[in-house]
Design goal:
383 residues; phosphatidylinositol-4,5-bisphosphate binding; exocytosis
Length: 383
Amino acid sequence: MQWDVLDGKITSWIQFMRIAVKLLFSSERKLCDQVFHGLEPYRETCFSEVTGNSVTMLLTFGESIAKSKRSPEKLFVLLDMYETMRELFPEVEIIFGGKPSASICEAVSGLTQRLAQTAEETFNDFADAVEKDVTKTPVQDGTVHPLTSYVINYVKFLFDYQVTLRQLFGEDEMVEPAKSQLAAATVKIMAALQTNLDGKSKLYRDPALAHVFLMNNIHYMVKSVRRSEAKDVLGEDWVQRHRRIVQQHAQNYKRVAWSKVLQSLSVQGLTSSGSGLGNEGSMSTGVSRTMLKDRFKTFNFQFEELYQRQIQWFVPDVELRESLRLTVAEVLLPAYRSFLKRFGSLMDGGKNPQKYVKYTPEQLDTMLGELFEGSKPKTEPRR
């Protein structure tokens, strides 16, 4: 069956199981006791024969689920089934307490144990499945990968089943949350996710985008953990350590993406060996006009190329997006203002100065404010 169809049938089975035990079999027990009062062993034999096929039909479906191929999405329905069977078992023991029905009690107990075993094996498989996820298509804009959101939501759901998982693992209620098997598994799952994301980042040809991708995904992990019960398990140290990793990727992005642009605004290499205005365009300041034109052209080309590319990248978290823009603006705008103040006027006397000095600092600031929107450019680069 397709998973969505099977999931619906499991939900129905849980409902039917409750109705069958709490209403149908319970009422049948009362009716049988009234009709066959004092007529042993016929009372128990009759009850067993009347209910046996119905119980078998319900348990057969449960057995087929418990024995089916394990997959991560089945864990929570397995836990739901296990919870239901565990909750109903005391009533089953009372209703089917007669000797002819002993096999039914054994079958219910056996299914409960098999559901527990399958759920525990599925739970233990998850971290390995995360680390071995082989999706080879990178998210083009460097945003949060579907695997990341899936794993984080999965972990959140696990904490909704804390009590059931403790029962499953046979843990004492006095065990501290941070020392539970759920805690150990959460740490393992998060480490597996990070290992997988590191591998996926290597699929990007642009190393700057790889850093944005890792920054986005680890930030999503940190933010989600801080807002969930997982924080009590992973601890504040885990949160702070991974926040530093986010900041490190932001700094690495800035260095990898913008170092060449900043280099074009450096004074180094502009000084001419001569002074005075010569045939090659050297100016009395000792700066070669030809080299200066090349620098402005280089800056314009590199900046426009980065703008066109990075406006299509996406940083979904608003605060992180603004912080990353500010990180770039804090190094680029002062460098550009200084370069423009020192050499911009020297281009005024030449032909078509606007061809070289294409942007004011304010225009650059506006364009930087459009980065990481995951959209088409809003500002058309000047020609």
